[in-house]
């Protein structure tokens, strides 16, 4: 078993994650890949890794990111793996008590991927969070019984965490993370889900996602949203070329990310910049409208020039 953790200026939270690993597992490889943290954070992280290695329970490796962003950090370690299974974790999350007991039950599995329903914790409210809920619904037994239940598992479980993945599946199919500012994991997870011959879903939780004020999800910006829009384009291109039936059903649109800009009160200039990006990559803004009413592809350029949308921006 190997565990890959991208890290950037998060030594306080990554300590909690490493404790949750060290307390339950032994003789495993833990790769912490630093993505250009501040110097003081690098010093703290280096001392932390030395301390954990001194206990001689697991093998901790501190690596320098050879690529870009969190996707590059994950790829840096992924290319080095020789283990049979890999788990991914984010530096501000942690494994829940008893997680290794659940994972070890699947060491001899012939499946390519084992998926566990995650949970989440809101550190500001000190209560259960919401980030896990969409994935919990997909993995619920009632959802899995539906005709497209496992199809949803393959296509819509976007995060890499809370999954055991066969390393051979990733290496043989050359599946890597996008090295982009945001949404580096979506195409990775879709490719792995579609390439996996067998996927098992466990009913028990092993992983907790932490909601906070300084995450990519909670601090949107024009550049992050543009990155997400670019990834949507890549997903559509991949599906259209390799899985046309899935492309018809799961084509990505830009509306979800554009709505973030509206909800977060981005300026008129910022929303215009996003719409220009949407037009540049030829991403539909409302694919559901097109499917329901038979419309031709709605381009953001046309939407932007609509008087109603202009008034919507000003409001």
Give structural notes.
The chain is an alpha/beta fold. The protein folds into 2 domains: 2-211, Spore Coat Polysaccharide Biosynthesis Protein SpsA, Chain A, CATH 3.90.550; 222-314, no CATH class. The protein is built from 16 helices and 11 strands. β7 and β8 (127-128) form a beta hairpin. α1 packs parallel to α2 (39-54).
What secondary-structure arrangement, pairings included, does this model have?
Elements: E1 2-7, H1 11-22, E2 29-34, H2 39-54, E3 59-64, H3 69-78, E4 85-88, E5 94-95, H4 99-104, E6 113-115, E7 119-122, E8 127-128, H5 133-139, H6 141-144, H7 149-156, E9 163-166, H8 167-172, H9 186-195, E10 199-201, E11 207-211, H10 222-242, H11 244-250, H12 255-263, H13 268-280, H14 287-293, H15 300-305, H16 307-314
Parallel strand pairs: 1-2, 1-4, 2-3, 6-10, 7-11
Antiparallel strand pairs: 4-9, 5-11, 6-9, 7-8
Oligomer status: single chain
Mean pLDDT value: 90
Kindly state the number of beta strands: 11
How large is the radius of gyration?
20 Å
Shape: globular
The CATH architecture of the largest domain can be given as Alpha-Beta Complex
Which terms would index this structure?
315 residues, alpha/beta, four-stranded mixed sheet, seven-stranded mixed sheet, Spore Coat Polysaccharide Biosynthesis Protein SpsA, Chain A, 2 domains
Task: Please summarize what this structure is.
Residues 289-315 have low confidence and may be disordered. This protein has helices at 11-22, 39-54, 69-78, 99-104, 133-139, 141-144, 149-156, 167-172, 186-195, 222-242, 244-250, 255-263, 268-280, 287-293, 300-305, 307-314; strands spanning 2-7, 29-34, 59-64, 85-88, 94-95, 113-115, 119-122, 127-128, 163-166, 199-201, 207-211.
């Amino acid at each position: 078993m190997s565990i890959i953790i991208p890290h950037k200026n998060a030594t306080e939270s990554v300590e909690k994650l490493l404790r949750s690993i060290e307390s339950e597992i032994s003789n495993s490889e833990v790769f912490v890949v630093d993505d250009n943290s501040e110097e003081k954070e690098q010093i703290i992280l280096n001392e932390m890794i030395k301390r954990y290695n001194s206990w001689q329970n697991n093998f901790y490796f501190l690596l320098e990111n050879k690529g870009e962003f969190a996707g590059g950090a994950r790829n840096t370690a992924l290319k080095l793996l020789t283990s049979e299974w890999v788990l991914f974790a984010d530096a501000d999350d942690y494994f829940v008590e008893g997680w290794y007991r659940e994972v070890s039950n699947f060491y001899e599995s012939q499946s390519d991927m084992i998926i566990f329903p995650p949970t989440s914790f809101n550190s500001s409210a000190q209560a259960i969070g919401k980030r896990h809920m969409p994935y919990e619904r997909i993995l619920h037994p009632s959802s899995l019984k539906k005709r497209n239940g496992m199809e949803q598992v393959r296509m819509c479980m976007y995060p890499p965490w809370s999954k055991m993945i066969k390393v051979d599946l990733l290496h043989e199919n050359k599946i890597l993370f996008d090295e982009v500012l945001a949404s580096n994991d979506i195409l990775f997870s879709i490719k792995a889900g579609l390439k996996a011959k067998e996927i098992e879903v466990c009913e028990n939780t092993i992983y907790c996602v932490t909601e906070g004020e300084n995450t990519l999800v909670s601090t949107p910006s024009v550049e992050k949203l543009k990155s997400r829009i670019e990834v949507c384009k890549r997903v559509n291109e991949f599906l259209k070329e390799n899985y046309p039936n899935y492309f018809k059903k799961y084509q990505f649109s830009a509306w979800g990310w554009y709505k973030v800009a509206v909800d977060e009160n981005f300026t008129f200039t910022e929303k215009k910049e996003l719409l220009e990006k949407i037009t540049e990559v030829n991403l539909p803004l409302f694919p559901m409208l097109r499917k329901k009413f038979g419309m031709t592809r709605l381009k953001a350029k046309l939407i932007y020039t609509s008087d109603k949308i202009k008034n919507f921006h000003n409001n």
